[in-house]
Amino acid sequence: MTMRYVAIGDSFTEGLGDTLPDGTERGWADLVAAGIAAGEGEPIEYANLAIRGRLLAPIVTDQLDAALALSPKPTLLSLNGGGNDMLRPGSDMTKLIAMTEQAVQRCLDAGVRVLLLSGPDPSDHLPFGASMRKKGDQLTDTVAAFAADKDLTFVDMFHDKEIQKRQYWSSDRLHLNEAGHRRVASHVLAKLGYPVEAHIVDPNPQTRSIVNELQYYREHVLPWINRRLRGRSSGDNRTGKFVSWTPIPG
Question: What does pTM read for this prediction?
Answer without folding.
Answer: 0.85
